[in-house]
Amino acid sequence: MSLVELTETIVKSLVEDKDSVSVKQFEEENNEILIEIVLKEEDKNNLFSDGKMLISIKTLLQASSYLKDNKKVKINVTSY
């Protein structure tokens, strides 16, 4: 499972409007991967208000990346 698929699976299981979630992956310099999550403002506020959920998702993605590509993962969450 790719990092995008893993991120989509996790985030979509936590929001009400699953079709509103978009996840993209960008290759960065210095052996890094940027995962961009776009979702509704309400879902962003509910999921990531205290930062614990974001840290948990990043931990899972980082572990998956180390098993495959050994690249550092960064996450950016935006809303509309």
Provide structural commentary.
- With 80 residues, the chain is an alpha+beta fold.
- Helices cover 44% and strands 29% of the residues.
- The longest helix has 17 residues, at 52-68.
- The chain is globular.
Salient structural properties:
80 residues, alpha+beta, GMP Synthetase, Chain A, domain 3, three-stranded mixed β-sheet, 3 helices, 3 strands, 44% helix, 29% strand, globular
Topology:
Layout: H1 3-12, E1 22-28, E2 32-39, H2 41-48, H3 52-68, E3 72-79
Parallel strand pairs: 2-3
Antiparallel strand pairs: 1-2
Helix pairs in contact: 1-3
Concise synopsis of the structure shown:
By secondary structure, the protein is of the alpha+beta class.
Question: Structurally, how many domains make up the residues?
Answer: 1
Strand order of the largest sheet: 1-2-3
N- and C-termini, Cα separation: 27 Å
- CATH C-level class: Alpha Beta
Based on the structure given, which CATH architecture is correct?
A: 2-Layer Sandwich
The named CATH superfamily: K homology (KH) domain
How would you sum up the major sheet?
3 strands, mixed
Briefly note the CATH topology name. Answer: GMP Synthetase, Chain A, domain 3
Radius of gyration: 12 Å
Q: Name the overall outline.
A: globular
Poorly predicted segments? none
Q: How confident is the prediction overall: mean pLDDT? A: 94
Number of helices: 3
Report the structural category.
Answer: alpha+beta
Topology, number of strands: 3
H/E element sequence: HEEHHE
Helix content: 40-55%
Tell me the β content. Answer: 25-35%
